[in-house]
User: Which sequence fits this backbone?
């Protein structure tokens, strides 16, 4: 009887340990990574510290399914170039999601965000908006209007005279990651970006060249322990993580850029192709370190 009770207690403890390993978020660190979320949409991760959390009713994040996990950003600096932003906005505003057609976003020579397109209000109204960008108090992006032209004529004085705001003209369906508030656009990256969902509090935003640079949290570099020694990498630690046909508990997985001369070009959808083209080594701590080529090198 005593042996049976001991076996039962041991089994319960092991079961609890497995459940804890499954439910515990997987910590992640990235450095100098070009993260391809989908064709035409790339995030330039200068550095990131956060966690992968299971989503879509999965017990553990599964790297082969971007909808099975979300990335919670605690601290970091991430840029999105204007070409990627244009691709995102085109998808978000397409069809009956909004009354905006042919939106094109650019950065002018004064560092303003230029937005040109047409608003369908019975007749097509061409518009040209100059705007700046900043973080909102609740951690989103605010594109604030500096000037508005319609049919090539300054519209802000007329809009003020007739008490008309941009949200009276421009309409976007809820849940698309874009909200029109007075004369400003509020962008929510957690809804705007394709899977995997990326959540975090943006504390600063600025224009650098042809990109919008966002700071999450305090933006400080915080290394996992033990810290990586590579220049460009993605590093997961702790919890449980599934990939290909494997599930790693007490995760210790590092993807290292095989060509560190430029950013680590990583594809969310095709990362297994990169894994196949590289090589892996088991570490002394029973972790796995994979040296993989850049995704854009694979395509060539």
Assistant:
């Amino acid at each position: 009887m005593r042996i049976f009770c001991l076996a039962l207690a041991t089994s319960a403890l092991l079961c609890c340990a497995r459940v804890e390993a499954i439910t515990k978020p997987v910590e992640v660190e990235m450095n100098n990574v070009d993260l391809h979320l989908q064709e035409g949409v790339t995030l330039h991760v200068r550095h990131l510290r956060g966690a992968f959390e299971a989503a879509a009713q999965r017990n553990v994040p599964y790297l082969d399914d971007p909808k099975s996990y979300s990335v919670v950003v605690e601290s970091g600096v991430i840029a999105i170039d204007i070409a990627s932003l244009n691709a995102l906005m085109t998808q978000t505003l397409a069809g009956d999601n909004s009354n905006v057609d042919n939106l094109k976003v650019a950065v002018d020579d004064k560092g303003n965000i230029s937005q040109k397109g047409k608003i369908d209000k019975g007749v097509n109204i061409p518009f040209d908006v100059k705007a700046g960008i900043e973080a909102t108090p609740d951690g989103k992006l605010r594109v604030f209007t500096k000037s508005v032209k319609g049919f090539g004529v300054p519209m802000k004085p007329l809009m003020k005279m007739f008490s008309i705001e941009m949200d009276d003209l421009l309409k976007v369906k809820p849940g698309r990651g874009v909200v029109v508030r007075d004369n400003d656009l509020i962008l929510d990256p957690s809804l705007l970006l394709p899977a995997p969902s990326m959540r975090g509090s943006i504390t600063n935003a600025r224009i650098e060249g042809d990109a919008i640079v966002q700071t999450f949290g305090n933006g400080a570099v915080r290394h996992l322990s033990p810290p990586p020694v590579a220049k460009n990498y993605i590093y997961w630690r702790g919890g449980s993580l599934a990939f290909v046909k494997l599930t790693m508990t007490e995760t210790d997985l590092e993807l290292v850029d095989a060509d560190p001369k430029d950013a680590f070009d990583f594809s969310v959808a095709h990362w297994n192709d990169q894994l196949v083209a590289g090589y892996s080594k088991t570490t002394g701590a029973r972790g796995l370190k994979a040296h993989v080529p850049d995704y854009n090198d694979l395509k060539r």
Q: What stands out?
A: Residues 2-23 form the longest helix (22 residues). Confidence is low (pLDDT under 50) at residues 2-19, 153-164. Residues 53 and 104 are 34 Å apart (CA to CA). The radius of gyration is 23 Å.
